[in-house]
Amino acid sequence: MRRVAVLLALGVALLTPGIALAAPKASLVDVEDEVMCVTCKIPLNIAEGPQPDRERAFIRDLIDQGRTKEQIKAALVAEYGRNVLALPESDGVGLTAYAVPLALVALLAAGLALLLPRWRRRAPAGPETDGSPPPLSGADARRLDEDLARYSG
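Below the sequence we write its predicted structure tokens.
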């Protein structure tokens, strides 16, 4: 029984560094596109200026400390507030930012599903079904002949 415990402890000790190495290492590029410049209110990956540079330096320091992406984002929120995150919150008004576009897409899809079969079944307008124009009346034919004579002359 003791041997099993020792082997199990040895296995865990050998696998622990492998687990630590398997955790994704954060990079500036990976974090930069998910946070905002708190001054410019634009994504940090396209912002230029002193404040975005300070935020990037802060992120680089956290990366050098070995922090994960989630830990870096939490530190950014602690330092700059919730406005630093590029994604809206998942409750309250932030939920509306997710729900409204999804509801509009669902409504549009439902409308198309209902109306498209009706449009396809609709008979063509007019008495003709072969696509040819209707015959000219006597007055229209006379006016057409007069116009052709006037312009071809």
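The CA atoms of residues 31 and 69 lie 6 Å apart.
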